[in-house]
Amino acid sequence: MTSKNSITVFAPASVSNVGPGFDILGFALEGMGDTITLTKKEGTVYTIKAIGADLPTDPEKNVATVALRSFCDAIGYKGGFEICIEKNFTPGSGLGSSASSAVGAVFAANQLLGAGYTKEELITHALDGEMLASGNRHADNVAPCMLGGFVAVKSCDPFNGFQVAYPEALKTLIIFPDVIIKTADARGILPREVSMSQAIQQAANMAGLINGLMTNNFQMIRDSLQDQLAQPFRKKLIPGYDEVEKLCQQSDSVGFNISGSGPSMFAFFKKEHDLSALKQSVSEFYKSQGIKCRFHESGINGRGVEVLLFKD
Question: Cβ(138)–Cβ(33) under 8 Å?
């Protein structure tokens, strides 16, 4: 155990269900996520402070403290903590808010207590928090938030996945219409069975997307960023989805799809692409529909969760 008493970490937001990568593929974002400060305290109680969002303060109902408890139980640590979670993006936006909190908490504890776990070993504990939020142990937000970059997930218990190389010239535009979609509703709308032809096309698209990312083939990325399983159903929950996709295509996007379970959407572009006109067009469209809209323009975060500050 270390002699440090407090640590601050940053856990990035992430995009999951990347095109054909439903519950499999995600990537981490720059400039958006959770800043988490974990401080040791006397006794065994966990206390929670939240900034920027209304989060549960009951440790049994907060994803960060559920993940933290899972990790501390595994290493046999019985001490208490104060955890301060500062959100700079909206929970429920389809950008892995629960994953950021869970990842940040277990990573901070591992660093603060000197437990020596690898990031990959921490994923299973972060998934205990994710399970509370979504009811499923899927790692396509947790893994890229933890590891950075693009991560493909083969299995969760134990975690088995791999990072995927990607073009340095790739960036993404996140589009947030101000509507609410519950993850449970977005999952409930999906069919329980798909046809063999759909399954084959989904696998082909996933293979093409991985290849396009690894070989810097932007045309293949664009052609492969198609989803047979979720997007045709979930897009009905997002006002203006087809219109926004068309605007992005007209601006030479390198593919477009839903981020997570929505309502956020993402589009890939080459880094040098000026998106000012596109953002203006999308804003005007949503204004005509009486809907507010926000944007986040980002490179791919290749670092994942990281330490910002240690304090004695």
Answer: no
